[in-house]
Design brief:
about 270 residues, seven-stranded mixed beta sheet, about 20% strand, globular
């Protein structure tokens, strides 16, 4: 069954990546500088906050877990890291390699075609593992993913995932009824706390940062209000933690603490 899911995901992202031309692959200097000099502020997007947590990147070997067409992998390389990225989509990997070539990063950004949970990298190869909106595509094999990141990460290394979540069922029902265009694959779905917290059982300490609660209202109030809404989200999350299940994006930080336990109970 999962092999059919992999085939559908591969076909979806192959089609998406085919539309990318050389001009769209190049990341501007302004974007690179934004993340190279990222700092903590209430108006940060999740990725801004992530970069404040991982800088400086010089001397670090980073794995981009499910890298797609290599945008984030090349951004990490441009900010000083040595980056390895993999994806199930061969066309996406072709585009990632082309992006690295166009940006002069081929010596610092390397890409492979692998399915998640079945990469062939050596044990304890990476200082940092990062995934951008990838786990919710892999909800049916999260155990395999958690085993793999435990195997690949060096002792004391850290994992970061930015993921869409649905921890409030009422909001989930509303989302499905609101006529907002969504670009999704047939098999993906938003995750819940329990699925992400499960990584603790694989030898990790885990914390969450929450984003995008009332920022959703930008669809009604207009994009010009988005910055203000994001700042409000930051303060609401800080001072009213009971609101956290209403937020739609999590930045998951997991630090490797122990070796993999011998027996892992099933996810139910």
């Amino acid at each position: 069954m999962y092999s059919k899911v992999v085939d559908r995901e591969r076909e979806f992202f192959d089609r998406e990546s085919l539309e990318l031309d050389d001009r769209s692959l190049i990341i501007s200097d302004a974007v690179i500088n934004r993340y190279r000099h990222a700092h903590t502020k209430p108006s940060n997007y999740p990725k801004d906050t992530l970069f404040t947590m991982i800088l400086p990147l010089e001397g670090k070997h980073v794995l981009d877990y499910g890298c797609g067409a290599g945008e984030n992998a090349c951004l990490l390389a441009a900010c000083g890291a040595t980056v390895t990225g993999f994806d199930v989509s061969p066309v996406s990997i072709e585009k990632a390699r082309r992006r690295a070539e166009l940006m002069g990063l081929s010596d610092r950004a390397h890409f492979d075609v692998f399915p998640a949970g079945h990469t062939e990298y050596k044990d304890r190869s990476f200082d940092i593992i990062i995934g951008f909106a990838v786990l919710h595509h892999l909800h049916m094999i999260l155990d395999d993913v958690y085993v793999e990141i435990n195997r690949l990460l060096k002792p004391g290394g850290q994992v970061y995932f930015i993921e869409p979540v649905a921890n409030n069922h009422l909001l989930g029902k509303i989302r499905r009824k609101v006529p907002v265009e969504l670009v999704v694959t047939p098999d993906e779905r938003q995750l819940e706390y329990r699925e992400l917290e499960r990584v603790r059982q694989y030898g990790f300490n885990v914390t969450f940062r929450h984003f995008r609660f009332i920022e959703r209202l930008h669809r009604v109030l207009g994009d010009q209000r988005r910055l203000t809404l994001r700042r409000l989200d930051y303060h609401l999350e800080k001072f009213f933690p009971f609101l956290r299940p209403l937020y739609g994006i999590l930045l998951v930080t997991a630090r490797k603490a122990n070796e993999l336990p011998h027996e892992i109970p099933p996810l139910v």
